[in-house]
Specification:
It comes from Vanrija pseudolonga. The protein contains 27 helices and 21 strands. The protein is globular, with a radius of gyration of 35 Å. By secondary structure, it is of the alpha/beta class. The strands form 6 sheets. A 7-stranded parallel β-sheet has the order 9-10-6-11-12-5-13, with helices on both faces. The protein binds adenosine-5'-triphosphate. Adenosine-5'-triphosphate (ATP) binds next to helix 7.
Length: 786
């Protein structure tokens, strides 16, 4: 795809050169002048002048020989009275600088100076007759204009790359610096979606990519973008760079993750360049006040919940790629003309997790952002006068055209087949009589520049990844805590638990904290900083448990999530696919567990239908001997939680009462605030709560004692490991015993299900003899034996 001709009225010097040479008045140095120059003292440095501030004059190209109708050029302009100085860059290259011509000095003073132009490179095509006429005096320029360097934009050369290091990508024109990064990151082979999408992305096509969770979609759309950017001229210090790519994500965490992913790839790609960049331009770092080289490619993130002020500063400096959630971006657009113009003139628009985006409550913002990129969008039509963003930025929007060569990338793990069909046929308007879905609406508004965008559908049957194993535990609702606790202890690893509500998380977190399980919450009502902190803690805890709402269901790429637990089943098949997709990523094994109560049965049946399945996943075998002890622990933890909650509530009520009284300037009856047990007037309920509060330390001590006792399977003797109906001494001696449950099996949940399928399990640890395992379901029916 070719770059469009610049809208600017001037033709750039480099373009003119390419097209046939600049008509410029340059005088060859005479031998005499050279001699004089050698004898004369060194001339004072001549003042530089910015290219755009030079007094260019339009040339009528139709009168030039061989230039019929402009010779394919928009315009040719010429200059008088300006000289060129060549500056060596130390690497064998040279850069031309415009400087004030000495001829001006000639008119004022006698001392002649030699011309500095390079004889071989500068061709004298001037018309000698008007050599001295029309000299600019430069008096109209401010000193600051004259002193600035005027670098021609330089496109750094692509580093050498040995294709033998990355044979799977041979012939694909990914920038070689990125190829270098992929070798360093051990991404030697493209994933299927990358193999299919990247070449077309590089060739300028619009791409709609549907591929399973964890299949590397981020790089599938990023490699073409980063390759393009790396082939653009290096940024200049102090100049706001134009926005080239916008990546829209449904959640803040995903946006930050995409930023991190791209930054990591770039840090490897540019590692060598950064080491030798001593002589590059410096830029003021406005935070530290230190000189800092502008990054070769800058990636910015704007998401809700983090300081808008800081994000505005990032935008003011400018970035090449902006990763954003629609809500915050739309807010910032209201007051940032340059950003609005940047979005209008994007080179790449990416909609990541498109189907989720429309569910996040930001559809209106998303739609408006997309509108800015439409070629036929007319901000001055009057239609948008009531919208503050369009109204505030109307002038700049009117002056900016959407690019003809903008590429649109839409990626998701789930995208309706109907929609894909419509895209292929380019029938994006809704079929008659059928109400378009929000997603269809959105796609209709995307102004794909391609007649027919490339649609790549690699979604697996049923939407789930091949390396995922699923299972379920059926139990009554009130036992879900117990079975979750059992699962987390029995199968150590990193687990992501999805609940249906924030209240559910608020109940589970303190309960499991009492049980000393490393649990972290993630939901939309937490402060953004806390959300990110919890994610980081989860990522670094090998047995960590993240309890989350669907805010964590999409796109999050957390390394080595071993298990996903659906504490509550999701309502849609897409949500089930995305939630389960947080494990079994990038071809790794993963396990998803459904906790199914009788009330959940109808939802489960509906899910199975949508996933095109006729049977639920197999049940997980439970080692029932552990259950009585676990039940005891859970009951105590609940009791402590209840008592603590009552105290917290009481304190909260008292504070509220005090604040309300203060606000109304009234005195409050001290009895109302009394806690004293012997105070006959203290409210009865509070007295009861106080009693509970007093019990808390004793309950905690009891729980601590329980937690310190080993959990022992039926038939195992902790005291005499060589005795009992289940002898565990070998396991203990070989260090293959379960870490917290004596006598429990040590197969991972994945391997256990793999074995249950009748396939050869891939034991990571020593396999247990099957007869030693006992299965048991406490309530809800059948007993199982393995
Ligand atoms: N070519 C590759 N080889 C090996 N690993 C890769 C390759 N490309 C990407 N990955 C890794 O695969 C993981 C998943 O990638 P990514 O997050 O892009 O998946 P995704 O398809 O966007 O998933 P989701 O649908 O859940 O958002 C990441 O950790 C990434 O670093």
């Amino acid at each position: 795809m070719t770059e469009p001709a610049p809208k600017s009225r001037k033709l750039r010097l480099a373009d003119v050169r390419k097209a046939g040479g600049l008509k410029r008045k340059v005088k060859k140095p005479a031998a005499k002048a050279t001699e004089e120059a050698e004898a004369a003292p060194a001339p004072a440095p001549r003042r530089r002048i910015k290219r755009d501030d030079l007094p260019w004059k339009k040339v009528n190209t139709s009168i030039l020989p061989g230039m019929d109708a402009g010779g394919g050029m928009m315009m040719l302009e010429e200059l008088d009275g300006v000289a060129i100085e060549w500056e060596e860059d130390g690497r064998g290259g040279r850069t031309a600088r415009f400087v004030e011509s000495n001829k001006k000095a000639k008119g004022k003073a006698a001392a002649p100076e030699p011309e500095a132009e390079d004889e071989e490179d500068e061709e004298d095509v001037a018309d000698e007759e008007d050599e001295d006429a029309d000299f600019p005096t430069f008096s109209g320029f401010a000193a600051s204009d004259l002193d600035d360097e005027d670098d021609e934009p330089v496109v750094p050369a692509e580093p050498e790359f040995n294709d033998a290091l990355l044979p799977a990508w041979e012939g694909v024109p990914i920038h070689t610096a990125l190829k270098r990064a992929m070798v360093a990151l051990d991404f030697s082979k493209p994933t299927e979606i990358q193999r299919r999408a990247v070449p077309d992305g590089l060739a300028g096509r619009d791409v709609v990519g549907v591929a399973e969770t964890g299949s590397g979609k981020t790089l599938a759309y990023s490699l073409p973008i980063l390759s393009y950017l790396l082939r653009q001229p290096a940024p200049r210090a102090g100049v706001r760079r134009p926005l080239s790519a916008l990546v829209l994500c449904p959640t803040r965490e995903l946006a930050i993750q995409v930023n991190d992913h791209l930054s990591k790839v770039l840090s490897y790609a540019l590692a060598e360049d950064e080491d030798d960049g001593e002589d590059d331009d410096d830029e003021e770092d406005d935070e530290a006040g230190k000189s800092k080289k502008p990054p070769r490619i800058s990636i910015g993130t704007v998401v809700g919940g983090l300081s808008a002020h800081k994000q505005k500063r990032i935008l003011a400096r400018g970035c090449d790629v902006l990763v954003a959630t629609p809500g915050r971006l739309w807010d910032l657009l209201k007051t940032d003309d340059a950003l609005a113009a940047g979005v209008r003139a994007l080179r790449f628009l990416v909609i990541d997790e498109a189907d989720r985006m429309i569910e996040t409550g930001h559809f209106a913002e998303l739609e408006s952002i997309v509108k800015l990129t439409q070629r036929n969008f007319t901000p001055d039509s009057g239609e948008y006068d009531d919208d503050p963003t369009f109204a505030n930025t109307a002038t700049v929007l009117e002056d900016t055209d959407a690019r003809e060569d903008m590429q649109t990338f839409v990626f998701s793990a789930t995208l309706s087949k109907d929609l894909q069909q419509n895209l292929k046929k380019r029938r994006r308007s809704k079929p008659k009589g059928k109400k378009a879905s929000a997603l269809e609406d959105l796609v209709e508004k995307l102004d794909f520049r391609d007649e027919s965008p490339l649609v790549i559908d690699l979604s697996p049957e049923g939407g789930l990844v091949k390396t995922l194993r699923e299972s379920m535990i059926e139990c009554v609702v009130s036992d879900k805590d117990l079975y979750l606790y059992y699962f987390l202890l029995r199968y150590p690893g990193r687990s992501l638990v999805f609940t249906g509500s924030i209240d559910g998380i608020r109940r589970l977190i303190p309960l499991f904290e009492q049980l000393q399980v490393p649990v972290y919450p993630l939901h939309s009502q937490l402060q953004q900083k806390q959300r990110l902190k919890n994610l980081d803690r989860f990522k670094s805890a090998p047995n960590g448990v993240l309890i989350a709402t669907d805010v964590a269901a999409r796109g999050l790429d957390i390394p080595h999530v071993d298990h996903v637990v659906h504490f509550n089943l999701p309502r849609t098949a897409d949500a089930y696919v995305h939630r389960s997709g947080r494990t079994a990523r990038a071809q790794n094994p993963g396990f998803a567990l459904q906790l199914v109560s009788p009330e959940d049965k109808a939802v489960q049946r509906a899910l199975l239908r949508s996933l095109d399945r006729d049977a639920p996943p197999p049940e997980l075998a439970i080692e029932g001997g552990f259950m009585p002890k676990l039940k005891e622990r859970i009951a105590l933890a609940r009791e402590i939680e209840k008592a603590q909650h009552a105290v917290k509530k009481d304190n909260h009520d008292k504070n509220w009462l005090k604040e309300a009284a203060e606000a109304m300037d009234i005195d409050i009856d001290p009895e109302l605030l009394s806690d004293a047990e012997d105070d006959p007037d203290a409210p009865v309920a509070r007295k009861g709560r106080n009693k509970k509060a007093e019990k808390v330390p004793a309950l905690k001590a009891k729980l601590a004692n329980l937690l310190a006792q080993p959990l022992v399977a039926r038939g195992v003797s902790a005291r005499y490991p060589t005795a009992g109906s289940r002898v565990i001494v070998d396991d203990v001696l070989n260090n293959t015993a379960h870490g917290t449950m004596l006598g429990a099996g040590t197969l991972s949940a994945y391997d256990q299900m793999e074995g249950a399928k009748g396939k050869a399990p891939k034991p990571k640890r020593k396999a247990e003899p099957a007869k030693k395992q006992e299965g048991h379901r406490e309530r809800g029916g059948k007993r199982q034996r393995k």
